[in-house]
Design goal:
The protein is an alpha/beta fold and 197 residues long. It is 35% helix and 20% strand. The structure holds 5-O-phosphono-beta-D-ribofuranosylamine (GRF).
Length: 197
């Protein structure tokens, strides 16, 4: 299989992880390229980031297409996608996409899964829960995507210390910064067959 992958990013909101990958690709830190961005949310800043970088980007939801699943599959085929990275994508992935891209769909999550994953565990909710539970550590997980939220095989985890003066917001910032490094690192490792999908 070729080293540089054609990546599709699915994102529902800000797209800072998308930016991290675009930057790494431009700087030739990785050989892979973001070839497609899909969002369910018309207002996602991830779409603006894609547009600024001339990356094909689409809003796919039940208002924009008749059949979300087949519209997505068509785009994945059209752009010859090898790898899908979910970066803040808040929808479940349909079965047909899971089947076609078996073991080629990854998600990045801002906690040490299996802790603080699953329904309702997104955004600041995660960091609120970590602080409430007085966890000594939190971190980032990258995992394979299956039919349940945040429950596929974990590929990489990195932890950071939670300090006594951390707030949910400060933790969110620290974890996001760590995510930007890890998402690029994972792609490098996939390219070099250190991580085997
Ligand atoms: C990240 O914290 C990611 O782990 C989670 O959603 C957030 C997306 O951030 N799944 P961004 O849109 O990449 O800035």
């Amino acid at each position: 299989m070729k080293k540089g992958k054609n990546i599709a990013i699915f994102a529902s909101h800000n797209g800072s992880n998308l930016n991290a990958i675009i930057h790494a690709s431009k700087q030739k830190v990785i050989d892979s390229t973001v070839c497609l961005v899909i969002s369910n949310n018309h207002d996602a800043l991830a779409l603006v980031k894609a547009q600024k970088n001339n990356i094909p980007n689409y809003v796919i939801n039940s208002k924009t297409v008749d059949n979300v699943e087949s519209a997505m599959l068509n785009l994945l085929v059209k752009y010859d996608i090898d790898l899908i990275f979910l970066a803040g994508y808040l929808k479940k992935i349909d079965d047909s996409i899971l089947k076609k891209y078996n073991n080629c769909i990854l998600n990045i999550h801002p906690s040490l899964l299996p802790k603080y994953g699953g329904k309702g565990m997104y955004g600041i909710n995660i960091h609120n829960a970590v602080i409430d539970a007085k966890e000594p550590y939190t971190g980032v997980s990258v995992h394979m995507v299956n039919e349940e939220y945040d429950s596929g095989k974990i590929i990489v985890q990195k932890q950071i210390k939670v300090s006594t003066d951390d707030t949910p917001q400060s933790l969110q910032e620290k974890v996001l910064e760590l995510e930007h490094m890890i998402i690029v690192d994972v792609l490098k490792k996939i390219e070099n067959n250190i991580i085997l999908l």
